[in-house]
Amino acid sequence: MLFTGDIEPRLYEYMGGIIRELGSICMEINGMPDHVHIILRDSKAVDDVKLIKELKGSTSRWVNENLDPPGRFLWQAGYGWFSVGPTDLESAQSYVRKQKEHHEKITLQDEFRKFLDQYQVKYDERYVWD
Q: Which CATH number among 3.90.25.10, 3.90.1150.10, 3.60.15.10, 3.30.70.1290 corresponds to the domain 7-127?
């Protein structure tokens, strides 16, 4: 299922609510029809893995119950999680707000590989995409 049109703001609003329920602060959210970028200040009470698990599980249920997707909707198994320091926060938020323009120039896959290479994260291409 691709997130377009009026689905996109509804999904982002729902995701923001889940993030708040988990004690985190959603600072920016935007994406493309096939992926979402979120900047959040994470909770000290909920670890990153649990936050992502809850966010993906809750939104999958919500999409399937409320948006009538063609077939059962599930997020991919993996995700990327990057830290942003206070001095880079505005730049990161601008990046998220401009997703549609940004991805006219570079695909998510190429950009993700670039981040992994830039920060010297070892990865096996067979396990990055599903």
A: 3.30.70.1290
Residue the block writes with tokens 């691709």: 2
Helix (H, G, I), strand (E, B) or coil at 122: coil
Assess contact for 64 and 72: CB atoms under 8 A: yes
Residue whose pair of structure tokens reads 């909707």 in the numeric block: 73
Give me 16's structure tokens: 């923001």
Domain ranges of the chain: 7-127
Mean pLDDT of 11-17: 94
| pLDDT at 117 (0 to 100) | 93
Give the pLDDT score at 6.
77
pLDDT(1) > 60? no
